[in-house]
Amino acid sequence: MKPNHRSHSFGSSAFIQTRDGRKLHYMSKGAGDLTVVFESGMGLSRSTWGLVAPAIAEHARAVVYDRAGAGRSEFDSAPRNLRRIAEDLDDLLTGLGPGLFILVGHSWGGPIVRAAAASNLSSIRGIVLVDPSDEHCGLYFSKAAKINFA
């Protein structure tokens, strides 16, 4: 059987290094002045955006990534709170270079993109919240949630 040399629907694969040295995996496809970065819900990887990101890549650069501990990204030994997770997204944006960004967050990704956008106002052109979660909901950091998302 011949190998399939078609590119992945998410484009090329790469890693950025966070400020504390961890590697976060991302995939990028498309081109343009605008980069749309997709943030998945809790416990989910870049695959969540399988139907959306390739369609966006026809009009702009589309980036999907795996949060720490998901997909191909390294685990984070520090407590995973909203501030820490948003810092990882900030590090991804820095790694992607200067640009204009639209951040798209689904579920728990909603508070993450909101927090990251608040600290990065000069490069953010918009945020899209898809069924966002309440960032003050303690459920996400309960023992039961950790077991469920493991």
Short description:
The protein has 150 residues and is an alpha/beta fold.
Description:
With about 150 residues, the chain is α/β, with parallel strands linked by helices. It has a single domain, classed as Alpha/Beta hydrolase fold, catalytic domain (Rossmann fold, 3-Layer(aba) Sandwich). Helix content is about 25%, strand content about 25%. The chain has four helices and six strands; from the N terminus they run βββαβαβαβα. β5 (about 100-105), α3 (about 110-120) and β6 (about 125-130) form a beta-alpha-beta unit. Mean pLDDT is about 85; it is low at about 1-5.
Note the topology.
Elements: E1 12-17, E2 23-29, E3 34-39, H1 53-56, E4 61-65, H2 82-96, E5 100-106, H3 109-118, E6 124-130, H4 143-149
Parallel strand pairs: 3-4, 3-5, 5-6
Antiparallel strand pairs: 1-2, 2-4
Helix content bin? 10-25%
Number of strands: 6
What is the CATH topology assignment? Rossmann fold
Order of helices and strands: EEEHEHEHEH
CATH class: Alpha Beta
| Total helical segments | 4
> What would you report as the Rg, rounded to the nearest angstrom?
15 Å
Overall shape: it is globular
Major sheet strand order = 1-2-4-3-5-6
Query: How far apart, in Å, are the first and last alpha carbons?
Result: 36 Å
Tell me the number of structural domains: 1
**Major sheet description:** 6 strands, mixed
CATH architectural name: 3-Layer(aba) Sandwich
CATH homology superfamily: Alpha/Beta hydrolase fold, catalytic domain
**Structural class given helices, strands, pairing?**
alpha/beta
- Mean pLDDT, all residues: 87
Q: What are the low-pLDDT stretches, counting only 5+ consecutive residues below 50?
A: 1-5
Portion of residues in beta strands equals 25-35%
